[in-house]
Specification:
By secondary structure, the chain is of the alpha/beta class. The chain is built from seven helices and ten strands. The chain has helices at 44-57, 74-86, 104-117, 136-148, 168-178, 197-202, 244-250; strands at 14-20, 62-67, 91-96, 121-124, 153-155, 158-159, 191-192, 225-228, 233-234, 237-238. The structure holds iron/sulfur cluster. Residues 23, 25-27, 30, 32, 35, 67-69, 97, 125, 130 line the site of iron/sulfur cluster.
Length: 253
């Protein structure tokens, strides 16, 4: 840490942006529930300036962008990642379902933009749930173009109950992962689906015994990750209306 400006954020080391709630997927396991096909996106300049300001005061290790589908608004992702690269933040992550366009030229262009703005950890969400509504062929095209541009990729499956459980969804997820074997992309540990949003609605029968916890819940008295919504909400305020450093200074749980 460079300077302790608020003890409740003394361990802050990550910034994440929900770029948009709009999504191309309609996943049965989505913890956010139903998504619009288009919608509000985080303001690129305000988000990038927030990264610069926070990284001046804190040793930020990771900046992450996700959604919804963040690549519906590549301008915002690139503005955020450019600022993260400028400030030497080592891990610059995006979580994407890989489906933001059907146009091969557009897919190639976006992959090149992501490489140029410094994305160095691309987590590609592929599994039984995503592939119910997201065409695998297009995701493979995006993976191919991203690899050509030198972006490190990991496959990021969602598992139901546990990665070892042999329910029908997990069996299908293993098939989806096998369909990527030719790309030699490492498979990350993924995540265990927890009972919120659509998961609670459509997969309730799988949550009878020990319930998986939402791994993204923060301790408000020890904020390690600042999370921005597409509407600018963060901590107890809104970055569209207040200076982020002022908000950090004044924050109390
Ligand atoms: S899980 Fe991801 S890809 Fe699927 S609907 Fe939710 S945000 Fe979209």
């Amino acid at each position: 840490m460079k300077q302790m400006i608020n003890p409740y954020l003394k361990n802050l080391n990550k910034i994440e942006f929900v770029v948009t709630y709009a999504c191309t997927g309609r996943c049965k396991h989505c913890s956010e529930g139903d998504h619009p096909t288009c919608g509000e996106r985080i303001d690129p300049d305000i988000a990038a300036n927030a990264v610069r300001g926070i990284a001046t005061e804190y040793d930020i290790k990771t900046v992450m962008t996700f959604g919804g589908e963040p690549l519906l608004y590549t301008d915002a992702v690139c503005a955020i990642m450019t600022a993260a690269k400028e400030r030497n933040i080592p891990q610059r992550q995006i979580i994407t379902n890989g489906y933001f366009s059907k146009d091969a030229d557009q897919i190639r262009t976006v992959a090149a933009q992501l490489a140029a703005c410094g994305v160095n950890d691309l987590l590609l969400s592929v599994d039984a749930f995503h592939q119910e509504t997201i065409p695998l062929g297009i995701v493979k095209t995006f993976a191919t173009e991203s690899k050509k541009c030198g972006i490190p990729i990991r496959l990021q499956p969602a598992w139901l109950v546990s990665a070892a459980d042999d329910n029908l969804y997990n069996i299908k997820t293993r098939e989806v992962l096998a369909a990527f074997s030719e790309f030699e992309i490492p498979v990350g540990e993924g995540n265990i689906i927890f009972p919120e949003g659509n998961a609670l609605k459509y997969l309730a029968e799988y949550f009878k015994d020990e319930l998986p916890k939402n791994p993204y819940v923060e301790d408000p008295a020890d904020v390690r990750c600042l999370s921005f919504s597409p509407g600018g909400e963060v901590l107890n305020g809104n970055v569209y209306q207040q200076d982020i450093m002022e908000m950090i200074r004044n924050y109390a749980p």
